[in-house]
């Protein structure tokens, strides 16, 4: 698998799955554009990459920042081959405890931002017959208690993947999704879990995931690269669990 001469844009590359994806694509020879809000963390990702990436600090909830991401990437590399929509946030809460503000926060980052940056990227992806990989979640496929807005946002993202895959298939642009189970990153602690709760949450993966463990960011990164690669030229509209068998099990 080689991405030599391919331009790959990864959102949320300053941490977790996005950072691992950036490093993995760099090892496969890609030219990278990496975005996130935290420049210090983006720089740490860049230091692990095999070649020097273009770094763009941006907040994906701001339309002007999304325009800046695409414009800066095109100005720098003159093309775009792969868009990885990875930036995302989580917050807990069910129907009795979720505010509209929380709903808006989750949908603005996990859905609206993906919708708009994809719109901006599509003309360039059509030119290269490129591809898109969206980072959804196993919670887009099955319900998870106390995560109402997050689950809804990921289900919406999955439907976005399928609809856009159909829209762009005649232009030979492929659109796919990875749907991770629990992966060891900062996501849940940033979403409000204490260290203690997170430790317990990871321990529970022994029973909540068929393979008996949480995933590592690199395991998701490799699947993202596969879906974006020339090894997957007949795959589009796929909603692919990368979840250690999480969605096969009954809820606990
Ligand atoms: P992290 O919290 O480690 O990383 C999240 C990334 O998203 C960071 O780079 C962060 O950038 C970026 N981000 C969040 N909000 C914004 C924003 N408004 N503007 C720009 N960038 C933003 O989490 P993960 O790596 O775990 O999450 C990556 C994706 O994987 C998410 O979509 C998540 O829903 C999904 N996922 C994760 C799972 C897990 O168990 N970890 C399971 C299933 C899905 P910065 O810090 O610079 O603001």
UniProtKB/TrEMBL annotation:
Record Gene3D superfamilies: NAD(P)-binding Rossmann-like Domain
UniProt KW Oxidoreductase keyword: yes
Residue ranges crossing the lipid bilayer per the database entry: none
Gene Ontology molecular-function annotations: oxidoreductase activity
Keywords (A to Z) from UniProt: Oxidoreductase
SMART domains on file: PKS_KR (SM00822)
SUPFAM superfamilies in the record: NAD(P)-binding Rossmann-fold domains (SSF51735)
Ketoreductase domain mapped to chain residues: 6-183
PROSITE patterns linked: ADH_SHORT
InterPro entries to which the protein is assigned, alphabetical: KR_dom, NAD(P)-bd_dom_sf, Sc_DH/Rdtase_CS, SDR_fam
Pfam family, one: adh_short_C2
GO biological process terms on file: lipid metabolic process
Name this polypeptide is given: Ketoreductase domain-containing protein
